[in-house]
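User: structure tokens for this one?
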Amino acid sequence: MNTTLSNSIRFVVFIFLQVIIFNNINLFGYVNPYPYLLFILLFPVNGNKYALLISSFFLGLIIDMFSNSGGIHAMASIILAFVRPNLFRFAFGISYQYQTVRIADKISSERISFVLLSVFIHHFVLFAFEYFRLSLFFTIVTRTLSSTLLSFIFCLLIIYFIKPSKR
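Assistant:
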């Protein structure tokens, strides 16, 4: 399938899942999963970086429109898309330099560290700008860690279900 077409389908599917299913999950009053960021993580490594930044902005903006959150998802998505190459370099090392990294291949320690660190950065930016007060630092950290854990679990489950089987 064409890369542009598969990315467009993935874009729509992740927005649909986030808006219909995951925005309605609210554990203990403050834990929310945000697996829509998998669109940014699963974007091809050798893909157009400007297309990633622009599509990340629109992904976050659409989530903001449905969540009535005033642009924090767009900002967190853009920041994640911007630091993504550095996260790849940190987690995968030389494999990233040769453009041979695929997140959906198999679950390994490199992939787990990449996804976990990406989800943490996205959520920290999201909640830091949602509260935007230094006096609420522990609330920001608590929401970041708890939502990161839940989002990470959902992200691994989604990656496991969409990875191609090698039978």
